[in-house]
Amino acid sequence: MNQAIRLHQVASQLKATCNKCSLSNLCLPLAVEENDLERLEDIVLQGKIFNRGEHIFDQSTPFKSCFAVRSGSVKTSIITEGGDEQVTGFFMPGELIGLDSMATDNYACTAKVLERTSVCEFPVDKLEQLTRMLPELQHHMYHLMSQEIQNSHQLAMLLSKNTAEERIAALLLSLSSRFQRRRMSPTNFSLPMARNDIANFLGLAVETVSRVFTRFQNQGIIKARGREVELLDVEALQLVTCDFARQGCR
Amino acid sequence: MNQAIRLHQVASQLKATCNKCSLSNLCLPLAVEENDLERLEDIVLQGKIFNRGEHIFDQSTPFKSCFAVRSGSVKTSIITEGGDEQVTGFFMPGELIGLDSMATDNYACTAKVLERTSVCEFPVDKLEQLTRMLPELQHHMYHLMSQEIQNSHQLAMLLSKNTAEERIAALLLSLSSRFQRRRMSPTNFSLPMARNDIANFLGLAVETVSRVFTRFQNQGIIKARGREVELLDVEALQLVTCDFARQGCR
DNA sequence: ACTTGTATTAGATATAGATCAATTTTGACA
DNA sequence: TGTCAAAATTGATCTATATCTAATACAAGT
Predict the structure, then answer these.
(1) d(Cα A40, Cα B199) in Å, to the nearest integer?
(2) Alpha-carbon distance values, A189 to A75, A229, A240 (Å)
(3) Beta-strand (E) ranges in chain A?
(4) What is the pLDDT, as a whole number, of residue A83?
(5) Which of B103, B146, B247 has its CB closest to that of A101?
(6) Among A42-56, B191-205, B209-223, which stretch is predicted with the lowest mean pLDDT?
(7) Residues near chain D (nucleic strand), Cβ < 7 A?
(8) Which helix H or strand E contains B50, and what residues bound it?
(9) What is the mean pLDDT of residues A217-230?
């Protein structure tokens, strides 16, 4: 087989699969009309694979692209000059990474892959051009970025107002609903991240995270063996997060 | 004077002053070419005035517009079902409010005016249309929203990793640089918000905020009488925030 | 299977900052 | 100018969670 043919095969593999992607109802294609889809497919670089621990991009390297998670999971974090890490988010299939970097020349955070992960790359210059031509896509971008702001406010709220138990319950419920969106079990999943990352994300010590997990387990709210988690009593978890309910219980 | 003439006067007062606005180098006009400016001016509703304590918009009312602060200052906050408030930001002249609401049908927070304040209103439907025609404006919107995400991450970081002193030093420095942007004194200003709001924003008790203020004062880093603040030693404040430096000092 | 490093769990202690209680200051309005 | 409510400060305790230490479980590579 000559090289030209092989290249052609590779090219057609890479191209034009947004419409076949099982995540199209979560990801950017969601906002694009059937017949405009190929324009999005034209700019996307699909199917980049990273192995556990590899970086999709690094803080302070030139910002070029946003990335959609196809499979696997990603952790983003900011590293301070002092070497402190602050985990800013966990990203699951269908979610878009890099929106926090569009204000700066360099990436504003580092994106590290938590397990073998496949992503689609959207070069921002092209994406920005495309959003000018596809109003729905532009609207969707505003939507996603706004959502990201809200998420972050929600996190700030959790960090400043809630106890360790409340924070962890909230995280478990967030993960749960995100698994559900992907039509996976909302009560039976395996955490993509280590206790350490959870602790960092939620502003707690690892030990505290561990203790809360065992406490929840003793109360029969969850069952956890390592990263394998089963939510036995979702209502109880919701009660833990909801301070309104808590007030009522006093 | 007949009514037609009076209306005309009002209309021309309202219209076409973005190019004369002293904040045009901070606000949306910044991104717009001289000759496109009137299109921005066409959609903006200028000079709405609110008195201290009034709401520009309320959480859970239909989202319609973003607002740029012209003069005065604004506090945004989220109220939980339990009645808890979380202050999500303080906004000064030239800054844009409402970017966190573009993902939802209703406003995601409540915007309360901290003093007599004038704002410009940008109806989002028109703004979104306009950004399609003015690439620079679209780019600027992405920029602003991304910045907002970063700010919020920064806040989350502050809340989860920093001490009371560090948080307050960071806030003072942030305010300082924002006053400076507006060519006002970076060392001598009056806080637009109450201690209560500072405490809420930074995830502290009011008492703690008060104590840190007096501690800083005793150390000769600042001088504070009520809301009037003078930064006597900006370097010292920077040292407080920078954990790198702190490590070195141990 | 065995080693070695890493992640998780567990117990004991320390502490920053919350909470409670009281006082002083400020500012708005009659 | 005096009155009153809200805001700010100060002091005394209390507590959730960090920190320190150590034990145990787990995973990867030889």
Answers:
(1) 46
(2) 17, 6, 20
(3) 45-50, 55-57, 65-71, 74-79, 85-91, 96-97, 110-113, 117-123, 188-190, 222-225, 228-231
(4) 78
(5) B146
(6) A42-56
(7) A 163-165, 203-205, 207-208, 225-226; B 194-196, 206-207, 209-211, 213-214, 224, 226-227
(8) strand B45-50
(9) 91
Round and report the angstrom distance from CA (A203) to C1' (C19): 22
What is the C-alpha separation between B182 and B176, in angstroms, rounded?
A: 10
Average pLDDT (A192-198) is 93
The torsion region of residue B47 among left (phi > 0), alpha (psi -120 to 50) and beta comes to left
Residue A13 above 80 pLDDT?
A: no
| A/B interface, count of CB pairs below 8 Å | 150
A2 or A62: whose pLDDT is higher? A62
Query: In which band, very low, low, confident or very high, does the pLDDT at B149 lie, cut at 50, 70 and 90?
Result: very high
Residues 6+ away with beta carbon under 8 Å from B43: B122, B123, B126, B127, B130
The tokens for A86 are: 């602050």
* Helix ranges, B124-231 (H): 124-133, 135-161, 164-181, 195-202, 206-218
Token digits of residue A171: 């995280």
> What pLDDT is recorded for position B2?
58
Note the pLDDT of residue B35.
85
By the 8 A CB rule, do A187 and A234 touch? Answer: yes
User: What is the DSSP code string of A167-207?
Assistant: HHHHHHHHHHHHHHHTTS-SSEEE-SS-HHHHHHHHT--HH
In degrees and rounded to multiples of 5, residue B32 shows phi and psi of -110, 135
How confident is the model at residue A5, as a pLDDT? 56
Confidence at residue B117, expressed as pLDDT on a 0 to 100 scale: 94
Q: CB distance from B157 to chain A under 8 Å?
A: yes
Provide CB contacts within 8 A for A80, sequence distance 6+.
A86, B157, B243, B244
Per-residue flag: A64 CB under 7 A of strand C: no
Which residue type, as a one-letter code, is found at position B246? R
* pLDDT score recorded for residue B26: 87
pLDDT tens-digit profile of B50-89? 999 999 999 989 999 999 999 999 999 999 887 889 999 9
CA distance B29 to B32: 5
Distance CA B204, CA B182 (A): 29
B132 CB less than 7 Å from any atom of strand C: no
Whether residue B221 contacts residue B236, with contact meaning beta carbons closer than 8 Å, is answered with yes
Cβ contacts of B93 within 8 Å, gap of 6 or more: B23, B26, B69, B70, B71, B72, B73, B182
